[in-house]
C-alpha cells in the first residue's frame, strides 16, 4: 500500500499533473438536484457566523423562522482517481488522473482535470469525498451570516 502511495505521489510530481488545492471552494454551488437558494425554513436553531469557517457570531435563527438563503459555497477535499473510461464531453480520457470535487446533482460531479473544472457523469465514487456546505442567510431582522447546512433547513429543494 505504501509503495502505491509513494509511486502515485512520485508520478504526480514527475508528470506535471496540475493538482487542485487541498480544499476546493465552489462559490455559489448548491450541491444536489433541484437545490435552490430562496426562502428557507429553519428546522432547528441555527447560529450565523461572519464568514465560512468564521469565529464571530453575527446572528441567530430560531426553529421555524423563515430566512432568505442568498448563496452558498461547497468546500471539498478533492478525491484523486484514475478515469476508467473516456468522458468525451469533459475532455477526460481513460487513464487520466482526475479529482472529484463534489456531487452536483442529476448524476453529475464537478471534477478537476488538468487544471480545469469540468462536469462528469456517472461516478460511483461520488459522495466519498469530504464536503462542507456553507450557506449565507439573511434573517427578517436583517442579520446576514453563514452557517454549515446539515439538514437544518427546509424548502431548499425546488422539486418538492
Task: Please outline the helices and strands.
Layout: H1 2-14, E1 24-27, E2 39-42, E3 46-49, E4 57-61, E5 66-76, E6 79-82, E7 97-105, E8 108-113, E9 116-121, E10 131-138, E11 144-148, E12 153-154
Antiparallel strand pairs: 1-5, 2-5, 2-12, 3-4, 5-10, 6-7, 7-8, 8-9, 10-11
Quickly list its features:
mainly beta, 8% helix, disordered N terminus, 160 residues, 12 strands
Topology, number of strands: 12
- Beta-strand proportion: 35-45%
| Contiguous helical run count | 1
Structural class: mainly beta
Q: What's the structural domain tally?
A: 1
The helix/strand series, from N terminus to C terminus, equals HEEEEEEEEEEEE
Radius of gyration: 18 Å
Question: How would you describe the overall organization of this protein?
Answer:
With 160 residues, the protein is mostly beta strands. The protein has one domain (21-154). The chain is built from 1 helix and 12 strands, in the order αββββββββββββ. A hairpin with a 5-residue loop joins β10 and β11 (144-148). The protein starts with a helix and ends in a 6-residue tail after the last strand. Residues 1-14 have low confidence and may be disordered.
